[in-house]
Amino acid sequence: GPGEAREADIGIACGRGVGILFRKGRLVRRVEERRIVPEIVREVKKMAQGKTKQTKGER
C-alpha cells in the first residue's frame, strides 16, 4: 500500500486503473495501469545510473 511504498527507494501504490509512483518516500507521479511496469523499470535504471555516477565520483 501507500505506506510501504513511501518507505521504499522506489514504490508504487496501485488503485483502479492507476498507480502512484514514489521515489525515496516522495510522490513522483501518477501512472496509468498499462505503464506501471515500464515506469518502475525506468525509475530503477535512473536510480542505478545515479549510484554508478556517485561511486565513480568517490574514487
Give the topology, please.
Layout: H1 2-7, E1 10-14, E2 18-23, E3 26-32, H2 36-58
Antiparallel strand pairs: 1-2, 2-3
List the domain count as a whole number. Answer: 1
What's the count of strands? 3
Any low-confidence stretches, pLDDT <50, length ≥5? none
Number of helices: 2
Distance between the termini: 39 Å
Second-tier CATH architecture: 2-Layer Sandwich
Rg over alpha carbons: 13 Å
Class by SSE composition: alpha+beta
Share of residues in strands: 25-35%
CATH class: Alpha Beta
Taking strands numbered 1, 2, ... along the chain, how are they ordered across the largest sheet? 1-2-3
Largest sheet: 3 strands, antiparallel
C-alpha geometry? flat
Please provide the ordered H/E string of secondary-structure elements.
HEEEH
